[in-house]
Amino acid sequence: MLDPIDKFRGMKWRGEKITALTAYDYPTARLLDESGIDIILVGDSVGMVVLGYQDTTRVTLEEMLHHTRAAARGVKQAFLVADMPIHSYDTPAQAVETARQFVDVGAQAVKLEGGVSHIQQIEAITRAGIPFMAHIGMLPQHVREEGGYKVKGRIQSEAEALIADARAVEKAGAFSVVLEIVVPDIAKQITNAIGIPTIGIGSGEHCDGQILVTHDLIGLFPWFTPKFVSPEARVADEIRRAARAFIERTRAGGRI
Questions:
Q1: How many structural domains are present in the chain?
Q2: Catalytic: 180?
Q3: How far apart are CA 164 and CA 143, in angstroms?
Q4: pLDDT digits (tens, 9 = 90+) for 106-125
Q5: Which of the residues 180, 232, 238, 248 is marked catalytic?
Q6: 81 with 39: CB under 8 angstroms?
Q7: What CATH number has the domain bearing residue 29?
């Protein structure tokens, strides 16, 4: 059987797009797995779309391990990656310990936010034999310091830093890199400059693959939808419709 990491690199060179979506529980993970998705990410976006936090900065390691454990039970074919939450990788030693905890609950790889700034942590994880997915561009765990979710790569110095980040994480052993809200032309440059796959989110069509938060894709979090998302379903509307129908039928004395 082909190693998943070799598979993704091969897909890049053949021009086959890599698909990735998030899951935080057993049924969602199982449904995505049965749909043929390549990568399932247990993202710290769970904080916003499941736990009701304002952003991802309040998500704890315990919460992420809980959701990773649940999602892992539903995955048979897809490659399962887990997000390392804020302050769970402040040092290389802590990063390795955290990564091992995720592997213990069923993750096949881990992801943390940062490029050159976190090379020591990334190298420690890959030296420990744990597959690693990088994440550069807009870093949601830094949203408070940045004052919002901002497009990256608009100015030359920022673009150069992103390319340097991408090359650094590749050299450190990452098998792929997420590019979040990066100017499409810069995302294309990065994709062409490195040998590992780029997985875009809000970064244009020239990445080697795409990832979305499943709740955004299926319209399950109607109170906010990123500008770059075109929902494929309106699940929130269906939930409301079903609930109202149940309420009406129950109050009318109908059979449940």
A1: 1
A2: yes
A3: 21
A4: 999 999 999 999 999 999 99
A5: 180
A6: yes
A7: 3.20.20.60
